[in-house]
UniProtKB/TrEMBL annotation:
It catalyses: alpha-D-glucosamine 6-phosphate + H2O = beta-D-fructose 6-phosphate + NH4(+). Catalyzes the reversible isomerization-deamination of glucosamine 6-phosphate (GlcN6P) to form fructose 6-phosphate (Fru6P) and ammonium ion. The keyword Endoplasmic reticulum does not apply. HAMAP family: GlcN6P_deamin (MF_01241). This is Glucosamine-6-phosphate deaminase. It comes from Paenibacillus residui. GO terms for molecular function: glucosamine-6-phosphate deaminase activity. PANTHER family: GLUCOSAMINE-6-PHOSPHATE ISOMERASE (PTHR11280:SF5). The keyword Calcium does not apply. The lineage of its organism: Bacteria, Bacillati, Bacillota, Bacilli, Bacillales. Its EC number is 3.5.99.6. Keywords: Carbohydrate metabolism, Hydrolase. Pfam families: Glucosamine_iso (PF01182). Belongs to the glucosamine/galactosamine-6-phosphate isomerase family. NagB subfamily. InterPro entries: Glc/Gal-6P_isomerase, Glucosamine6P_isomerase, Glucosamine6P_isomerase_CS, NagB/RpiA_transferase-like.
Length: 242
């Protein structure tokens, strides 16, 4: 595991975007695993800057997002589909057909989960997976529990997660109760994982995830087992990792 603690958000965003750009330079048809949440927003902004400067192209890349709410219309302002389009996809040259997000409105969710994993597999797996972390240690929407699931699956969101995400909605009642998430197995098969964390409210969970026991009650703790884990934090989120 490589842990990088940055003194400013700017440096963190630049380093993370630089790593993604480097992946695309080495392999133009790289498969990127993308995340939502507030943490990667600045990284996407840097990627857009790099693209506009002509330093990186996504035209042969493929992307797979980690998760999507169930039952939220695709064009809802808080769907992850809208998030990715407004934050990244509409600003770069990634072909629309190469950008994948689970369909949270699929008629048969189970079939959608199987289809999603098959598409990742057919693309050759994820070359680099960006992850944020929830306050309870969730990655994607893999919530803590007695067991974790390997494949893409339907998940009941924990109250804590819905509360944390309520800031993006008018009220907590508007936050969906379920989501589709890529499973731990799919995440762990990524060739490289880039875990990002920002802010003092993430310090404790980052310590538990990276220095504590490997425990399904903290899904991110399984990342300790990954041979190519790169961690980038700001000084606050990385405070307990030094
Ligand atoms: N499903 C997402 C995760 O992919 C994200 O990493 C996490 C943290 O979000 P944030 O970066 O806003 O703290 O919560 C969300 O619920």
């Amino acid at each position: 595991m490589n842990v990088h603690i940055f003194s400013s958000n700017e440096e963190l965003n630049e380093a993370a975007a630089g790593l993604l750009a480097a992946t695309l330079h080495t392999k133009a048809n790289a498969v990127l695993g993308l995340a939502t949440g507030s943490t990667p927003v600045g990284v996407y902004e840097k990627l857009v800057e790099l693209y506009k400067k002509g330093s990186v192209s996504f035209k042969s890349a493929k992307t797979f997002n980690l998760d999507e709410y169930v039952g939220l219309p695709r064009d809802h302002s808080e769907s992850y589909y809208t998030f990715m389009n407004t934050r990244l996809f509409q600003h770069i040259d990634l072909p629309a057909e190469n950008a994948h997000i689970p369909n949270g409105n699929a008629e048969i969710v189970q079939e959608e989960c199987v289809r999603y994993d098959q598409m990742i597999e057919q693309a050759g797996g994820i070359d680099i997976q960006i992850l944020g972390i929830g306050h309870n240690g969730h990655i994607g929407f893999n919530e803590p529990g007695p067991t974790l699931q390997s494949a893409t699956h339907l998940v009941d969101l924990h109250e804590e997660t819905r509360k944390a995400n309520a800031r993006f909605f008018d009220s907590i009642d508007d936050v969906p109760v379920q989501a589709i998430t890529v499973g731990l197995g799919t995440i762990m098969k990524s060739k490289t994982i880039l875990l990002l964390a920002k802010g003092s409210d993430k310090a404790e969970i980052m310590h538990r995830a990276l220095r504590g026991p490997i425990d399904p009650q903290c899904p991110a703790s399984f990342l300790q087992l990954h041979p190519q884990l790169i961690v980038m934090t700001d000084s606050e989120a990385g405070r307990l990792l030094k």
